[in-house]
Amino acid sequence: MTVESFLITGAALATGERADIRLEGGIIAEVGLIPDAAGATVVDADGLIALPGLVDLHTHLREPGYEQSETVLTGTRAAAAGGFTAVFAMANTSPVADTAGVVEQEASLGLAAGFATVQPIGAVTVGLKGEQLAELGAMARSRAAVRVFSDDGFCVFDPMLMRRALEYVKAFDGVIAQHAQEPRLTQGAQMNEGALSGELGLAGWPAVAEESIIARDVLLAEHVGSRLHVCHVSTAGSVEVIRWAKARGIDVTAEVTPHHLLLTEDLVSSYDPRYKVNPPLRRAEDVEALRAALADGTIDIVATDHAPHPVEAKQSEWDAAANGMVGLESALSVVHASVVANGLLDWADVARVLSAAPARIGRLRGQGEAIAAGAAPELTLYDPSASSEFGLERLAGRSVNSPYLGRTLPGRVVSTFHAGYATLLDGVVQPSDEVARHASAAGGDRG
Amino acid sequence: MRHLLSTRELTRDEAVALLDIAEDMAAVQQREVKKLPTLRGKTVVNLFFEDSTRTRISFEAAAKRLSADVINFSAKGSSVSKGESLKDTAQTLQAMGADGVVIRHHASGAPYTLATSGWIDAGVVNAGDGTHEHPTQALLDAFTMRSRLHGTASRGKGLDGVRVVIVGDILHSRVARSNVWLLATLGADVTLVAPPTLVPVDTTGWPASVVYDLDDALAGSPDVVMMLRIQAERMHGAFFPNSREYARTWGLDDARFSQLPTTTMVMHPGPMNRGLEISALAADSAQSTVREQVANGVSVRMAALYLLLSGERGEA
Amino acid sequence: MARIVLAQADVQRALTRIAHEILESNRGSDDLLLLGIPTRGTVLAKRIAAVIQRIEPSAPAELAGSLDVTMYRDDLSRSGIRMPSPTEIPATIDGKTVVLVDDVLYSGRTIRSAFDALSDLGRARAVRLAVLVDRGHREFPIRADFVGKNLPSAASERINVRLVETDDVEDHVSIEGSPE
């Protein structure tokens, strides 16, 4: 089968200039004024912004083990719907991604599905139990070439284990992505600890439980000269600690989720489990600090922490409900609403925090490259003008636990191109069989 | 009133009206025929996910004295997983035609979830949810205070200027929360006394002052001292060193009790730990309202059920 | 527009006549108890009792009380929430002649509720009914023993009884709405 080529016309690049973009032969063949389609499928991108394909450093794909919530296929369809061309799949599957076998299986499921590059994250400790190191080297050397390791969902709490993990992954330029949560301070925690938790009678998750772990970890990273990544930073205090660490020259990067940039703990007053997430939604002051930190570079990236759950896991009383929200499909609109609409970030910044920087932190080649001739053919077309109620039809994964349903959000992802072919075209996620055929035709090149 | 989920949402007028109706209900409890036909044909389900015989029989008596049919549904120990059971149970009750559901649940907010989920049309009464609220307990406490202070002239009155000291595990107490909101709404002046570990980290939004010294609080000769039950297992969470130290520092012992004016009411939501948070002398004194609280509980719950279940469905 | 059908003096005269009729029918004030149905029935019961006590100084001091029937109504789920009023029974009703007093007799449903309420309180020797206005349209086999004024009316009309104690205006009874 011949590989389809595309001519995207009249798109606005992140820099603001208008250009036509031709995808052909597995690369971006040409960017500029292209008068002749030359047999390519023409995609009218007038009024749309072309961004490099988005890269999510923090996705839960749930496969293997929790396929009722999400699979690699459904999760990457959600990714395509949200403009993502690569996702880092967290390790808390069943079995846990703590061996070369599991991470290779995940990577190959991603390749076969073809909707996005699936880059597995390896567990730091065996079974995420925090007791002994997983086979980090074997996962790094495997075909999945794991570079990011995380026990996300759990904190690598033992300081000695954390130190060893930070040191050990230096051997292959890996990074430990820490879920910063002091377990003893958060036993039974249900929401941000503060005035509201006291009123609602929900056990508090204090900011200090996050901040104290980040403080410890940046000092450990400094001591052993390692690279540290902090998952889902959620408090103003954490921002201060990271800012201090960066000023000191410590090699730390940090992510914030879209929901922590937009939503606040007040939503918990409804006891609606859609708003239950870990770390919990925080105060408006925290949201402000996180936005400012993303704007000034203290926080490097936005990562979704896309966490699908079946309907029954959210149709319950608050305590019994699962933590987490789906986020891939809504991420760009939420970033738009929270930091672009108010001028804190421009679209070039968005390309950095949602594409270039996460690819760099995760050492993922062929992703996050600026749109230019010769770059990998990964890109997203976004319509910033539309504003609409976020409805079920915007969700493309298996689960619907989105906190944004019924909320008006700006913008809409129109098309996504991965490996030179469309995974989302004119707002329609492309048929799975077609995408799989393209993927196999593209030669299974993981880039 | 569609549901009674928290005292926080009650206006002063609503709270006073409920207490006034409870006065009428209390009068009925003095008659030979204690039953009213008011809720004939209505079905009230006592849905208890947590054991509480006292609260359950109080609601049961209230519903029966209004001639409602009562179904007791104890979900505790059922094999259904926690999350599913609330929804499944609600749908079962809906199918059975429940008009009112009295719910006791270990999870804060569960009554709220039941009332807003759309799983059931019934009016929902919160009979205690986790560490959140226990509105009928606060209402019966307020009723008891009002009756002691104003007797037969209680009707229409609030608790303006009444000084109430609440002592104990504020952090985990749904009784304390419901009382703080309600008593403040009714005009009382509330002081909370507890070890700092048992007070929420931020109570700036609470209409109450917080102090740590019980003797200081009692020196002000309050009108009411309400002792909360302290659960011994709290010491495992390092909230206080041991029960002896707790009793000595925050217990209403004989010495503290004897310093109080004889007009000061001593209240306790029960069940009491005699010798821990309250001495036997204080608990059994004429100043103690513990038994009145139990009797008033039925009247207040009758009033709540009346307000929820009479009138047209769907009315605000 | 509302049309006045009983002015202040008419109301007073009617109550005085009812007081006389009650005394006559009961052959004095022995074992007599007037229970008004809140809110205005209670006021009327007190007024009639005052007249009786003037006529017969030997009449018991606690002649009038109040009987709330809210909890006994058969239409609770057909209207908004009704706030009950206190029931105040000055003495046992056992063996008494109880005169129920209400402002307007209409369908008879309120009085039917009152029978239920009364029977929960004890066993009266006899139960009588006094009303200021009887406007007809009965839905129960109930009739008043003592009537201030018969006022045939259309169902579409409203009869308003206003008393100084409850309404802060001079006593009067008016009728409003179209007779169609």
Describe what you observe in this structure.
The complex is a heterotrimer of chains A (447), B (316) and C (180). Chain A has two domains: 5-49 and 375-441, Roll (Urease, subunit C, domain 1), CATH 2.30.40.10; 52-361, Metal-dependent hydrolases (TIM Barrel, Alpha-Beta Barrel). In chain A, 29% of the residues lie in helices and 21% in strands. Chain A contains twelve helices and 19 strands. Chain B has eleven helices and nine strands. The model of chain B has no long low-confidence stretch (mean pLDDT 93). Chain B has two domains: 12-134 and 294-309, Rossmann fold; 135-290, 3-Layer(aba) Sandwich (Rossmann fold). A five-stranded parallel sheet of chain B has the order 7-6-5-8-9. A four-stranded parallel sheet of chain B has the order 2-1-3-4, with helices on both faces. Chain B is of the alpha/beta class and 316 residues long. By secondary structure, chain C is of the alpha/beta class. Chain C has helices at 8-26, 40-55, 109-121, 164-167; strands at 3-6, 32-36, 64-66, 97-105, 126-134, 146-150, 158-162, 172-176. In chain C, the strands form two sheets. Chain C has a five-stranded parallel sheet, with helices on both faces. In chain C, α3 links the parallel β4 and β5 (126-134). In chain C, α1 packs across α2 (40-55). Chain C is globular, with a radius of gyration of 16 Å. Chains in contact: A-B, B-C.
What tags apply to this protein structure?
heterotrimer; A: about 450 residues; alpha/beta; Urease, subunit C, domain 1; TIM Barrel; 2 domains; nine-stranded mixed beta sheet; five-stranded parallel beta sheet; 19 strands; globular; C: about 180 residues; three-stranded antiparallel beta sheet; 8 strands; about 30% helix; about 25% strand; amino acid binding (chain B); transferase (chain B); aspartate carbamoyltransferase activity (chain B); pyrimidine biosynthesis (chain B); Aspartate carbamoyltransferase (chain B)
Distance between the termini of chain C: 14 Å
Number of E-type strands of chain C:
8
- Quote the average pLDDT of chain C: 94
What would the principal axes of the Cα set say about the shape of chain A? globular
Are there runs of chain C of 5+ residues with pLDDT below 50, and where?
A: none
Count of DSSP-assigned helices of chain A: 12
Strand count, sense and closure of the main sheet of chain C? 5 strands, parallel
Largest interface, with counts of residues having CB < 8 Å to the other chain, equals: A-B, 26 and 32 residues
Number of domains of chain A: 2
